[in-house]
Design goal:
65% of the residues lie in helices and 0% in strands. The chain is mostly helical. The two termini are 33 Å apart. It is found in: Cell membrane.
Length: 416
Amino acid sequence: MFLRRFEPRTGRTTAEVINFALWPIAVMTVIHRVVIRAVNGSVTDDFAPVYQAALAFLNRREVYTANFNSVDPHYLYPPSGTLLMAPIAIIDPEKSRWLFILVNAIAVIIALYLLLKMFNLALNSVAAPITLLAAFSTETVTNTLVFTNINGLVLLGEIAFLFLMLRRKDLWSGAAIGLTFAVKPILAPLMLLPLVRGQWKVFVTAVGIPLVLTAIAWPLSVDPMEFVHHTVPYLTESRDYFNSAIVGNGTYYGLPVALIWALRIGFAAMVAVSLWLLYRYYRNDELFFVATASGVLLTASFLLGSLGQLYYSMLLFPLVMTVVLRNSVIRNWPAWLALYGVLSADDWISHRFQQAGRAAEYLKPTLGWSLLLIVVFAVLVNRYLFARREGRLDRGIDPDFLVTDGPEPRPTPAKL
């Protein structure tokens, strides 16, 4: 009888069994990615130039001295970002890198927790271990930790921004995204959301925080104008290496400039139509609208902008989570084929089929982002055309089975 106290609890329902099975796998995957993969590192080291810049800033030396003729990672953050990053150079590089890995891993976990809360999913639901395991199994989270860059914190800023905006905490929402702007403007397209929703207070802190940090950092920097004269021109260029945007891969494979622009304009038109349909027919379905539109905006910026890198796809997690909503645009196999392309950690380099394998590896994110935009566009346009044919545009464009059956019940949030 005494030993029965140590008997592990046995799952009695399918949900309990899934929870018991996935939680240890998810936790061990997180530990493996942080302690083994990330600490081992990679040839690609995004942390070293950041550490050297922070060290130079603290020692009143020039920061913006990168040689952009090399393909090594460069330091590209503005003075406000340098100010925020400066503390990492207080301790030695190895321990600082380990701490930075840990901070980014914790940031991803907090972001996933906020994402679950945003979709009203409980920690004791099967969604929690599935989300944690899936996220840390992706290329984007794995390489963010292995390369040791700041994207984990950017993800936290993004999801905190969306979470707080949906709850009408506008100043705090703006503060969350404003801190990311101080380092890199990758989330700038998301400012369209508070603009069309009339949440003007978001802009106060979203713009104010990076301006204040810049005002503080500028006189503390030895060469702040070199960021303008040396770094900004490089940021406006489209490089043909480590660039999965249309212009990057198009240039690498020697596509005509006219074809590259035709592709960019064509996808931009699809994005515009998708965003119009989302705003016109779904803006009152706030969670679906915000999560889906954010995914469309960011995917478009990765694909159509001057630089798109595969690990940016971490920022599409809110769009991926819409799969739990009945009217989600990604409840179909082409959407998940696209998500495989942008989230999978599979390496398609082949020693036997070298040319084909290299093309598959280099084009995987480009084709994935492209297919994802095509799927969203096709689903929304198809819904619109069916609703117009049936004369029910005034009642929205959701298919009949969504309108007549009512919404799916959502899990009750866990009491923490």
